[in-house]
Amino acid sequence: MVSEEQRNSALTLNSQEFDFICRYVHERTGIVLGEGKREMVYRRFSRIIRDRGLASFSDYCRLLKANPEQEQTYFINAITTNLTSFFREQHHFDYLGQQELPALLAENGQKRLRIWSSACSTGEEPYSIAICLSEAMQGQLSRWDVKVLATDIDSNVLSKAQQGIYDRDKIADLPQEIKSKYFQKGTGSQTDKIRVAGSLSELITFKQLNLLHQWPMKGVFDVIFCRNVIIYFDKDTQQDLFARYYEYLKPGGLLMLGHSESLGEFQKYFDNIGRTIFRKPLAKGGEPLQAQAVS
């Protein structure tokens, strides 16, 4: 058995090991890691190496080669970044709640709404979407077919999202009315925690999904959130993902990107209607484009 002291002294990350890990990450997730991410790679994978009782990064690289499927979940969970908060990039939720949802409610004769949080992390984004829906619909939810799909590649953050339990300071900056309506305070040993209301959880389905793999959903969405994830992919992968998002949006549907992201060459297929808010246009003459269900 390798001692903790021996492990610490042996944990150096050379260029060959770093290059192998970067290639491995890109092949399985599409995420591009540059030299500026070396410290992050060292920090995150050092934990896995210690958990596995290994002596070095070289040992872990050999393990990845020998058992790629067995290690894939741990590997992906280690490398993905999960920084989020309730109502992060508030302008998106302002537009959703004040502009888009009222328009959809007024025009949607089928009484059906679909929203996709495609990189949902620990769940704050889809729960924020659910709050917007509840506020905009004001008691109409029971008469509508409303669903929020929340997906992420990381199984650990999905588990936390499904539980809906957070540190109390996560909602410190939210209006008191929102806190009272949609969050429950913990008691006893959980006084520093809050839980999202069941009425929000009922609107959301959480699923694990690698965006580079097949998307199993059928039908199209009214709104897709794809925020602060595209920046981790190379340009070709980004354009491929934008093409797939386009197909999964209904004509007139919205695509929300993160504050530092852009559509690049795919901008010509969308109308920019706000800060990182893009609409799939209707065909000329007001006739909707024929968006086919994708299986």
TrEMBL record:
One of the record's GO molecular function terms: protein-glutamate O-methyltransferase activity
Gene3D superfamilies: Chemotaxis receptor methyltransferase CheR, N-terminal domain, Vaccinia Virus protein VP39
Binding site for S-adenosyl-L-methionine: N82, T84, R88, E125, D152, N210, L211, R227, N228
Reactions it catalyzes: L-glutamyl-[protein] + S-adenosyl-L-methionine = [protein]-L-glutamate 5-O-methyl ester + S-adenosyl-L-homocysteine
Keywords, sorted A to Z: Methyltransferase, S-adenosyl-L-methionine, Transferase
GO biological process: methylation
Pfam families documented for this protein: CheR, CheR_N
SUPFAM superfamilies per the UniProt record, alphabetical: Chemotaxis receptor methyltransferase CheR, N-terminal domain, S-adenosyl-L-methionine-dependent methyltransferases
Chain ranges of the CheR-type methyltransferase domain: 6-283
InterPro entries assigned: Bact_Chemotaxis_MeTrfase, Chemotaxis_MeTrfase_CheR, CheR_C, CheR_MeTrfase, CheR_N, CheR_N_sf, SAM-dependent_MTases_sf
Enzyme Commission code: 2.1.1.80
Function: Methylation of the membrane-bound methyl-accepting chemotaxis proteins (MCP) to form gamma-glutamyl methyl ester residues in MCP.
Name of the protein described by the UniProt record: Chemotaxis protein methyltransferase
